[in-house]
Design goal:
Number of domains: 1
Helix content: 55-70%
Order of helices and strands: HHHH
Number of strands: 0
Number of helices: 4
Largest sheet: none
Distance between the termini: 18 Å
Structural class: mainly alpha
Radius of gyration: 13 Å
Strand content: under 5%
Shape: globular
């Protein structure tokens, strides 16, 4: 029987990888989100990402803020 995916860990890892790939830290992410009108604090972002408790909207906002235009989901 195939092992069930830990979706939270996979999506959290994907977001962390995209941040790292673009060399964007949480402080810079806060600034970029603010430019889009999204108000977050560094602590809030750190907590959301650490626990994996974020919405699809937050995920897309982060990806747009760091300039990610596409994702390869084959490795998920």
């Amino acid at each position: 029987m195939p092992k069930e995916l830990d979706w939270t860990a996979k999506i959290t890892g994907m977001l962390k990888a995209e941040l790292k790939r673009r060399d964007v830290g949480y402080r810079e992410l806060v600034e970029r989100l603010a430019e889009m009108g999204v108000k977050e604090t560094e602590v809030n972002i750190r907590n959301k990402i650490a626990r994996g408790g974020f919405t699809a909207v937050f995920l897309v906002q982060c990806l747009m803020a760091i300039g990610c235009q596409s994702l390869d989901l084959r490795s998920v």
